[in-house]
Amino acid sequence: MIYSMTAFAREEVAIAATQLTCEIRSINHRYAEMSVYLPESLRVFEMPVREKLRKRLKRGKIDCNIRLQQSGDDAQKINLSLNKNMLTALNEASDEITAFLPSISPMTVNDVLRFPGVMEVSTLDMQALEAALNMLVDRTLDTLISHRAEEGERLLPTFFEKLQQIDDGLQRVRKELPQIVQAAREKLMQRFQEASIQLNTERLEQEMVFFAQKIDVTEEIERAESHVKAMLTHLKTGGLVGRQLDFLLQELNREANTLGSKSAHQVMTQTSLQMKVLIEQIREQVQNIE
User: Fold this and answer.
1) What's the CA gap between 95 and 251, in Å, rounded?
2) Domain at 154-286: CATH architecture
3) pLDDT tens, position by position, 203-256
């Protein structure tokens, strides 16, 4: 099974009068980039949450947003307290700012209360919150990974179809290559005759051998076929295959370029162009595979 890097999951859990909400959003990224947003009262749990994300998500830009909210009438029963040290520091900072900027408006009560850490909820059971938070993050990750897997499964038929088209083109060139080489030799001989160029038999044979080697793309076809087979194997095996697929696409594109540069027939040119188009279409989707 392959996994897309694009997904979203949202889960909630209630504990006493408190409701915890966890949202995790992921998009494609070359590496793993984690951003965790927690309310001030839960900031102590940031590193454990990051570790959970790191263990289960290997690639992608991950945004994890956790919110804590008191629910219903029970919220009014919560004892709130002010962080007096924070208030003292804010007051000193306000006095200092006013001294430099006399015309500035003084802080209001609402301004002070909105400052992180000023208001403390004294009734939070941190042990219970930690257990609930761990369960919530795990459950949200389960949902996110499930959505990633669903999206990856949806992309598989597209990958198989386009790789089959590439392989069909390679087989067509392989089948017609002897006729292409023979036709090219006959065309070269005709040009020699039209130009009235006289070559001895041995020299002519050497030139023909050299020309046949120059337009022969058997090795390129074999390498391209091996890249296609390797990609199919990775897709069927699943797991963290995004980087391997991206590397194989680069190598496959290299063979398509060589096939085009050695082209001695319309079939080779068309196959080279078709391969490049299909490779780019596959690459667009592979950029989103973990």
Assistant:
1) 65
2) Up-down Bundle (1.20)
3) 556 656 666 566 678 888 999 999 999 999 999 999 889 999 999 999 999 999
Query: How many angstroms separate the most distant Cα atoms in the chain?
Result: 107
Q: Is there a contact between 101 and 60 (Cβ–Cβ < 8 Å)?
A: no
The CA–CA distances, whole Å, from 57 to 32, 65, 134, 154, 290 equal 8, 16, 16, 20, 9
Q: Are 265 and 123 within 8 A, CB to CB?
A: no
pLDDT at residue 203, rounded to an integer? 59
Contact predicate 212/185, CB 8 Å: yes
- Collect the ranges in the chain with pLDDT lower than 70: 70-81, 113, 117-124, 181, 184-215, 264
Q: What is the DSSP string of 173-187?
A: HHHHHHHHHHHHHHH
Between CA 242 and CA 151 the distance in angstroms is 14
Q: Residues in the chain, how many? A: 290
